[in-house]
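By way of example, we now present a protein record of this kind:
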Amino acid sequence: MTQSTRWPELKRGLVAILRGITPTEAEAVSDVLIEAGFEALEVPLNSPDPLTTIGAMVRRHGQDVLIGGGTMLSVAHVDQVADQGGRLMVSPNMRPAVIAHAVARGMVTMPGVLTPTEAFDALDAGAAGLKFFPASLMGPGGISALMAVLPKGTIVGAVGGVTPGNMGDYIKAGVATFGMGTAVYRPGDSVGDVRAKARALVAAYDQAMQI
């Protein structure tokens, strides 16, 4: 996968949000996630020693999958993750200067938005995709309504309140990218736990995409 500021072509629009993961888990957890079919891994920066974890994952899998940071709130965060080789910038909010700096560093960006103003400002700043967060506040109907005015081809992700049971409703609304947090990893999970949850999510996604 070559470096790009555009959202890459992925077989599945599933992003593993590994909040709370530690460096000692980095290699084993990333191994089972990728084996299960995940192609994008996000380590939120409020995790223990996140930069060490990102660096370890990048060295192991960075040529094959999209790896980077979440909860990236500042230009400094962008530089810290990019310096570890991270190519994915995800945030819960929308800051044009942060997005633009991440684009300048060659990162794929998906900032969090909730309103039309935030969505269009993020795209103007160069965002590769939009993360509706928390998606549960808008629901599939609200996201569908907003997508009607977004530029054709805009990459839209949903995070927060998405489950295997309602994933199909979001897909019908036009969402094809999902950030999965505790549904795929929770601090204290064993590698076996992560493998089982990842396989279940991939199966649910594959089934829902056939709707």
